[in-house]
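Priority: medium. Attachment 1 of 2:
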């Protein structure tokens, strides 16, 4: 795999990791809303089980954030090391020929 393709794949994976993190964050928000609504309702199953689900999901959000941060750094380092901007410029020049 050439360096530009590898860099593009790395940035795609970073975007997908960000999407996963955002999805988990949305799940946390929905769980929070359910917990608030259940204060009025008082369902014992929701009251007993939902906090555990919330905590497990929050832990996963933290893990995904750690992975994403490390991967973004790796992607940036790869781009800098391999002068991806110059490679992209050269690719554009070659495409014009």
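Attachment 2 of 2:
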């Amino acid at each position: 795999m050439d360096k530009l393709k590898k860099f593009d794949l790395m940035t795609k994976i970073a975007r997908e990791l960000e999407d996963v993190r955002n999805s988990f964050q949305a799940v946390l928000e929905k769980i929070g809303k359910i917990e608030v609504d259940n204060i009025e309702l008082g369902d014992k199953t929701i009251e007993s089980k939902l906090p555990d689900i919330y905590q497990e999901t929050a832990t996963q959000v933290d893990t995904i954030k750690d992975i994403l941060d490390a991967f973004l750094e790796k992607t940036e380092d790869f781009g800098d090391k391999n002068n991806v901007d110059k490679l992209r410029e050269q690719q554009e020049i070659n495409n014009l020929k």
